[in-house]
Q: What sequence folds into this?
């Protein structure tokens, strides 16, 4: 069965939180939404003559809007007199009010124009001052930006200063900044460590510092040679001489025998030269190894200026020593002293140790370049903040002071503009030429009496205003609840009749925005009865045949009802849920981007054909958690809802013990939470642990949630783990049922 149309058949909503949404309402419309989602803005849009509204048959109707503004407009104290209110007035009084309000609005317009001019001038001066300070910051950080362009590069000085102000000022050494920059943006090479030099590999020779002489042709040597027994003399000496006695005659040898024997045969010179030769070869080999090591280190991609300088010095000394040794070999009588290499080698090895540490860090950091760059940026930007911290402090303090002054002035402008708009609206309403409402006031007094509000009534004064009269005499005023009640009674009796006693009911659209706010349950019940009657009057046009005279006509073509109160919504709307022809239900929601949406509440009928029928937006807390879980894509919100559902169902409904549930999920069925193509067992286990840790099962396990990083998982993993919990606990039937809610 098709839905009926009446009054507003289409409105394009353009409110602060809803842009371009096309709403096609039914004759009777019920809206539910939390505070702050934009219900009041929708109600005002329905009553706005400038809104983009399409009327049935192109015929606009009078729109009556009840909201907080209505109470303030209708119940108006007269000239500050306590207890005297003007619920309506004579035309002369209306004209007087129009003139007063027009004069006030003109004063406000002049004041607003002056404040806007002052605000513009202040902003201009502040912008010039900020630009000068930003240039100073830009200049103070130029050297660091030049040295480290990848980490500190910026083209826009203003954006640079804004970003720099978000960093804490810290002092870092030049070496620290350079090291951090090289780690993050330096060449990424797979360098080998520097090789080590061994100072102990270089031999020593005391003969270098003493002359080595050739003794010439001695008589002993000539005698032995001519006798052909030179070899016999040397061999006998080396083989048989063991102590200080002659092996042949047994006589005691003189103390200088050995020296005289060798000098006689010239054996000392020969032995020294052999030692020098051996030393020369050994030193050359050690020098070559050291030279190769240094040269290999010098061509390492990870260079070191200190190593290059000292390595070059070592190579030079080795070459000098080679030349000195060769000169000694050429002229054994020379006394030479080799240049020291041990200290240089020790210093080179110390440099090598530091370079190898650097290479190790580079190898580690090459595996995590983003993290290295993040650390580098922190170092560079904090260093820049340190280099101009006084300038930054002045800039930030100046901006904060300016923004505070601008905000204060803007608030004054908005406040005054709001007052001007309110006066404009009041002037338009006054020009509607309100007439006397004596009949309506009599109905209000009867309603007060019928609903046991006997503490006060309204008595008419000569000037067509009304005075509050209590049992003990004239009253001083109305409480907030009494004002709301009286205002709604006035609205109720006005819209269900005519503003003129001799006229037929006007064709109208009713918009009712949360009248039960700040009222008690008794008043809420009375309001619910009244609103249901208004809805029934509207519905009667279609269901009971007003046009044919079968039902009385109150002129109500359409009704819109808004509330944030679940109980009040159910009191008003529950008996209309089955009316799929004339009634429609909506929910107003707001997302994290402060954008609202109007969602029709419909469901498929279980009868044949599956027709869409009304569904209520007001559900129980448990069911609401399931519904919200299906809609959200935020991991944090999803995890919170999963915890609530699991606690409500398994602990409160199924009466599981917390420790037992934890044992089943986290010990006996740990492998059940491994999701294919996911991050593996640890991710699933972490999600399960985070879901159950705050359900009162074990205080110690609260830390599972504290240290759980929600950023490491996605919504698909959370939904997978949540479903698996019900499967592991043999409750998949309940899961599938609630998933269809």
A:
């Amino acid at each position: 069965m098709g839905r009926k149309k009446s009054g507003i058949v289409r409105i394009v909503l353009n409110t602060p939180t809803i842009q371009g949404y096309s709403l096609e309402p039914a004759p009777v419309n019920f809206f539910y939404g939390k505070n702050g989602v934009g219900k009041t803005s929708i109600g005002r849009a329905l009553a706005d003559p400038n809104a983009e509204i399409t009327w049935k048959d192109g015929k606009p109707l009078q729109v009556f809007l009840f909201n907080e503004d209505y109470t303030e407009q209708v119940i108006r104290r007269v000239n500050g007199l306590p207890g005297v209110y003007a619920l309506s007035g004579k035309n002369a009084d209306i004209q007087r009010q129009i003139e007063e309000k027009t004069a006030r609005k003109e004063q406000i317009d002049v004041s607003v124009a002056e404040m806007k001019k002052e605000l513009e001038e202040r902003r201009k001066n502040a912008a010039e001052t900020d630009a000068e300070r930003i240039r100073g910051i830009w200049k103070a950080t130029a050297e660091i930006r030049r040295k480290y362009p990848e980490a500190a590069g910026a083209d826009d000085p203003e954006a640079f200063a804004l970003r720099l102000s978000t960093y804490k000022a810290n002092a870092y050494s030049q070496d620290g900044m350079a090291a951090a920059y090289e780690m993050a943006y330096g060449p990424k090479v797979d360098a080998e460590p520097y090789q080590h030099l061994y100072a102990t590999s270089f031999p020593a020779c005391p003969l270098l510092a003493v002359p080595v002489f050739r003794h010439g042709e001695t008589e002993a040597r000539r005698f032995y040679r001519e006798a052909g027994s030179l070899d016999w003399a040397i061999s006998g000496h080396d083989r048989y001489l063991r102590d200080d006695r002659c092996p042949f005659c047994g006589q005691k040898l003189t103390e200088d025998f050995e020296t005289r024997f060798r000098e006689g045969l010239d054996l000392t010179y020969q032995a020294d030269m052999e030692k020098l030769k051996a030393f020369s070869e050994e030193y050359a080999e050690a020098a070559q190894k050291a030279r190769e090591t240094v040269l290999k280190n010098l061509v390492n991609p990870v260079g070191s200026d200190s190593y290059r300088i000292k390595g070059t010095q070592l190579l030079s000394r080795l070459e000098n020593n080679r030349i000195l040794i060769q000169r000694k070999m050429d002229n054994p009588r020379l006394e030479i002293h080799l240049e020291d290499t041990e200290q240089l080698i020790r210093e080179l090895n110390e440099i090598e140790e530091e370079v190898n540490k650097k290479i190790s860090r580079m190898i580690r950091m090459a595996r995590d370049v983003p993290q290295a760059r993040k650390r580098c940026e922190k170092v560079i930007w904090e260093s820049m903040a340190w280099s101009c911290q006084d300038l930054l402090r002045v800039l930030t303090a100046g901006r904060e002071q300016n923004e505070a002054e601008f905000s204060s002035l803007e608030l004054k402008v908005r406040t005054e503009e709001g007052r001007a708009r309110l006066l404009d609206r009041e002037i338009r309403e006054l020009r509607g030429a309100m007439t006397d409402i004596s009949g309506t006031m009599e109905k209000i007094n009867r309603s007060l009496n019928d609903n046991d509000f006997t503490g006060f009534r309204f008595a008419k004064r000569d000037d067509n205003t009304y005075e509050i009269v209590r049992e003990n005499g004239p009253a001083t005023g109305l409480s907030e609840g009494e004002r709301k009640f009286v205002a709604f009674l006035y609205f109720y009796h006005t819209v269900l009749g005519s503003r003129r006693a001799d006229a037929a009911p006007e064709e109208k659209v009713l918009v009712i925005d949360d009248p039960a706010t700040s009222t008690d349950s008794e008043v809420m019940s009375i309001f619910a009865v009244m609103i249901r009657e208004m809805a029934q009057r509207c519905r009667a046009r279609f269901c009971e045949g007003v046009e044919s005279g079968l039902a009385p006509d109150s002129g109500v073509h359409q009704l819109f009802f808004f509330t944030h109160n679940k109980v009040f919504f159910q009191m008003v709307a529950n008996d209309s849920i089955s009316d799929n022809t004339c009634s429609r239900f909506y929910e107003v929601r707001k997302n994290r981007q402060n954008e609202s949406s109007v969602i029709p509440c419909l469901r498929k009928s279980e009868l044949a054909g599956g027709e869409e029928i009304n569904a209520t937006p007001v559900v129980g807390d448990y069911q609401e958690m399931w519904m919200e879980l299906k809609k959200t894509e935020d991991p944090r919100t999803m995890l919170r809802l999963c915890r609530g559902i699991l606690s409500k169902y398994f602990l409160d409904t199924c009466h599981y013990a917390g420790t037992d549930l934890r044992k089943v999920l986290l010990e006996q069925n740990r492998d059940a939470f491994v999701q294919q193509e996911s991050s593996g067992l640890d991710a699933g286990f972490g999600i399960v642990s985070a879901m159950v840790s705050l359900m009162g099962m074990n205080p110690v396990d609260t830390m599972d949630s504290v240290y759980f990083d929600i950023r490491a998982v996605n919504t698909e993993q959370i939904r997978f783990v949540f479903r698996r919990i019900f499967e592991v606990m043999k409750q998949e039937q309940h899961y599938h049922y609630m998933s269809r809610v």
